Structures are given as C-alpha cells and as structure tokens.
Design the sequence.
DNA sequence: ATTAAAATTAAGAATAATTACTAATTTAAT
DNA sequence: ATTAAATTAGTAATTATTCTTAATTTTAAT
C-alpha cells in the first residue's frame, strides 16, 4: 500500500523546512510555503508533515505549547525551549546515543530513540 | 495575588495522581476523581492540573500524542512511551542532572531543567 | 459562630489545533 | 495517450483545552 509520489507541495514543505534553523509550526509552514504554492491548503501541510515525520524524513517536536513544531533535520539532537519567548531552538551537544543504551539497561522493553528538550531562558531573555 | 486555598477538588486530584504509576490524561483523571467528587467538572480538572504543574507540585508530560499526560511525582525523571500501546511509564535511570550542566556549557542562555522521553516497544508489545 | 473578601467551582460556550471527507487534479508507469 | 494510484483543495467535523459567569466554598478576621 501507498507508494510515495513526488508531489510539488511535499517538496516545497521539505525545502522550506531546510531553510529554517528554528522549528516552525504547521501554521507558520503553511504561511510560508503559500508564497511558493499559493493554492496549497493547511490540510495538505498537516498531512505531509505527518507523512514525512512518520517515515523519519523530518522530526516532530512536542514541547508543551499548544502546537507541534517541526524540524527539517532528521538526525536526533536535543532542543531548547525558552520559557519567556517560547522560541524552540537546537542545542549543541555531543552525541547522546549513550542515553538509549543506558535506558535499555534496567528496562524490560526496547528503547529505540529519545527526545530531549531543555527548558530555561534563552540568550535574549536571560537578563530579566 | 492569589493565595492557594485548600479545595476538595484539588486535593482529590493530587491524591488520585499519587495512586497511579502511569501518567493519565485530564480526561482519565476526571473520570476517576468523579467517583469521589461526583459534581466535579472537566474544566476544574484542567484548571487544577495547570495550577499544580505551574507551582511544580506535579509534572505535565507532552509526549506527542493528542493530549497531555500528568505525573504526580514532581521529582524530575525520564519517561518511556510505547509506540504500540501508547502507554506512558516511568523509566528507571540514575540521576540525569548532569545533562543540564552539559547543556549549559556551550549555550548562551540558561538551562533550568529538561524533559527526557524515550520511545520504543514496552515489555508487553516487544514480541511483535 | 458570623461575616465579608478572595478563591474556587459547575456548566456550558468558545477557541484552537488537527483530522476526516469528497470530488477533482496530478503523478507514475505503461 | 491511457489508466490507476496518489495527492490535493476546500470545507466540515472532531478533539483537547480554555474562557466566562453566576453561584458556592474557603479563609481569616472578628
């Protein structure tokens, strides 16, 4: 079931995500991709984001605010969320794969991956 | 502003959360606390869950499924989400505070805490 | 114990994010 | 060019959560 075609919308979404170092929501992606694909609908954006993160080509980040954020970088890495301005950024750290190994040690199931999100004040909000 | 009264609902919610080792949603909490407080409303459950997690007495867990989950254990610890049955459990690991220190090293802002969620197959779903 | 102010609540309306539906369009493979 | 499968726009529907308001409960002070 379901081979994956090459669709204009899908490619525009991926291309847009690649240009961003922050991690936009579906709404933001929609408003931007619209400039390239004026007829695209919000539903299409959602459907493709879900599809793409299901096959692991992009990442979905659930950081606790109302909406999901999306990351064009499929490689696992930690994120940072500012409690003041709510920006969602990448956080530079050495490889954290050892966490999976560690987690698996006393665990009855199988750990496949993890999401690590740090919270605090970003460089712009910390003075206050 | 706003001192925190002792309210029957709020205490029943906390008490219920303490009895659970899984991490129920607002809806599940509502349906259970109802047996003790038959007149409680879903809005009250939501309001108190938000209040309690704001003051750090409980934890809110955003694990990527449609709804938030809540943890009566305020102490930071990692969680596990099963990709098959979607249970949300605690995961036993040694203290992970060093992650915050590590994260702060190359970071311009201030890391205060983190959420670590592992994904995979739980002990009951792993055979398949 | 009374009382008055502040906090909390139930109930239901409102909102916001996301998904589902359907007929039309696009894509890939002949 | 033809056809079947995949994708889409547009819109309706759903779901989780928040907001509003008048009534009730709690607290602290008498």
Sequence:
């Amino acid at each position: 079931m379901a081979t994956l075609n090459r669709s204009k919308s899908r490619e525009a979404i991926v291309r847009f995500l690649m240009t961003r170092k922050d991690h936009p929501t579906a709404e933001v992606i929609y408003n931007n991709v619209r400039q390239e694909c004026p007829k695209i609908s919000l539903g299409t954006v959602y459907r493709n984001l879900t599809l793409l993160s299901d096959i692991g080509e992009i990442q979905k980040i659930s950081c606790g605010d109302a909406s999901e954020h999306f990351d064009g970088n499929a490689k696992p890495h930690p994120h940072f969320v500012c409690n003041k301005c709510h920006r969602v950024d990448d956080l530079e750290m050495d490889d954290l794969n050892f966490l999976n190994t560690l987690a698996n040690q006393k665990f009855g199931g199988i750990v496949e991956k993890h999401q690590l999100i740090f919270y605090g004040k970003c460089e712009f909000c910390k003075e206050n």
